[in-house]
Design brief:
The protein has 144 residues and is mainly alpha-helical. Helix content is 81%, strand content 0%. It is globular. The chain starts with a helix and ends in a 6-residue tail after the last helix.
């Protein structure tokens, strides 16, 4: 019983002791990752950038926030492309893109009117990614 508790505590400690990768490290890893892993990693980068954008807008750093929003779109598109190419994680990427778009809508409501257009554009682009993924998921495959 003591061994079980020891190994359980060791596993928990190693999980919390793991180093979190920065967004730049994740982006570098994305370029080295095989297509099968890019969908998940692209969404992970977009989610990190979403938190960054929210924080930047809250701190009044609008230009940095706009750059984070551009990165969100870029990596969601890359995740969608990877999912379409491999035919894996289509549903997951679509759901995550919808959640990110919803959060961007929430952020947009808190901004001054002049700061909103980049978010409008990003939301439209994420909806295009979702539409492409949904078409791919529900397309009838030709029988050979």
């Amino acid at each position: 019983m003591r061994r079980l508790i020891f190994f359980l505590l060791l596993a928990i400690a190693s999980t919390y002791g793991a180093k979190d990768e920065t967004v730049d490290e994740l982006k570098a890893r994305f370029e080295r990752t095989r297509p099968e892993g890019r969908a998940e990693l692209g969404i992970r980068i977009a989610q990190r950038e979403l938190r960054n954008a929210d924080s930047f807008y809250g701190d009044g750093k609008v230009e940095q926030a706009h750059q984070a929003v551009r990165d969100i779109v870029t990596y969601c598109e890359k995740a969608g492309d990877a999912a379409t190419q491999t035919q894996k994680r289509l549903k997951n990427v679509e759901i995550d893109a919808r959640k990110i778009a919803d959060k961007l809508r929430d952020i947009k409501r808190t901004l001054a009117v002049e700061d909103q257009p980049p978010l409008d554009l990003a939301i439209r682009q994420l909806e295009d990614v979702r539409t492409t993924l949904l078409k791919e998921m529900f397309a009838k495959k030709e029988k050979k």
